[in-house]
Amino acid sequence: MHTLRLLRAAHNESVWLRRQKRYNYRQTMESVEDMPELLFVEHFRLNKSTFRRLCNDLRVHTSLRGSKEIPLKIKVLTALNFLATGSYQRIVGVSQNLTQRTTSRCVRQVVDALNHPTLMSKWIQFPQTVQERSLIKEEFQRKYNLPGVIGCIDCTHIAIVKPSEEEHAFYNRKGYHSLNVQMVCDHNLKIMNINAKFGGATHDSHIWSSSLVEPYMRHLHESGEHVWLLGDSGYPQRPWLMTPILNAPHGSREELYTTRHVQARTCIERCFGLLKTRWRCLLRDRVLHYHPNVASKITLACCVLHNISLHAHLPAPSDIPVTTVDDNDDSSTQTTQSTTTENRNELIRGRAMLNYLISRL
């Protein structure tokens, strides 16, 4: 019995020493801000001033708090490192003395905080005023010579592990499980709207018809404002959503329109590429090992951080992975929507508006 007590005491002392060592190291981790700026950006994707502002916003607007053992800034750095690499295993100092469980908890807490309505509405917002939409229209007109455009829309797949429930809803046509995430961006690659609620088996057109942007764009059109989004051929032609003209005659106005349409719509493809370059946890080969609901929150958090990075004018990471068209494009196998009378009428009106747009080129 005496021997057992000695062994238990030795074990408890060993555990206490390990915890004390981790605690002492965490206190010294605050010197991470002494890192050179370029190295800090490489590891955490934000510069130091932007990181400080983010920590302050999280402290003021959300329930995220630090503790004596783990300060708030360490939680944020740990989450940023995971989102930037997509792996708990790459050690860069911040997580050296955090256990796997503690690291995972920090990531979830920070992701939940980034999903707070205050931060979401601050950083991801569709243009609400005529003045905001006019500025975007002018830039698309200047860059791509297309009038009336206020954004580009498309979907991209975010790989996840096989879910235990409704697995079929997440198995996409490319042979892996994913979320099919719809985004709208402007000419500067700023994300203005995101819908990460649907599995990879869901068609782009269904996500569009279920999103809040569709009725809003419809309302703008019915109010007499001639503005539209640009989508690929997987989307239905509507007065407020312009799609390319397939097999347009060579040298025709239709071909000119499609050429400019394709050039302008590269904004959304470049947006996807930059988003996944900065926050590599979203890359297909990383795979989010989380429940779809948590994976959706991680995706939203990365989009918030993407817009924060753009606002801070941070350069794109130098180690840009190759982003193939196949990684984002689902248009080749999209199914058409049901041919109800309402859909046919909207299609006719959409083609009429398309002809009007072409006549302005």
Automatic annotation (TrEMBL):
Start and end residues of each stretch annotated as Disordered: 321-343
UniProt KW keywords: Cytoplasm, Hydrolase, Metal-binding, Nuclease, Nucleus
GO molecular function, one term: nuclease activity
Pfam family, one: DDE_Tnp_4
Domain DUF8040: 39-114
Cofactor(s) recorded in Swiss-Prot or TrEMBL: a divalent metal cation
GO cellular component: cytoplasm; nucleus
Residue span, DDE Tnp4 domain: 153-307
Compositional bias of kind Low complexity: 331-341
Keyword Plastid applies: no
UniProt-annotated location(s): Cytoplasm; Nucleus
Functional description taken from the UniProt entry: Transposase-derived protein that may have nuclease activity. Does not have transposase activity.
Sequence similarity: Belongs to the HARBI1 family.
Protein name according to UniProt: Putative nuclease HARBI1
Native source species: Parnassius mnemosyne (clouded apollo)
Top-level taxonomy: Eukaryota, Metazoa, Ecdysozoa, Arthropoda, Hexapoda
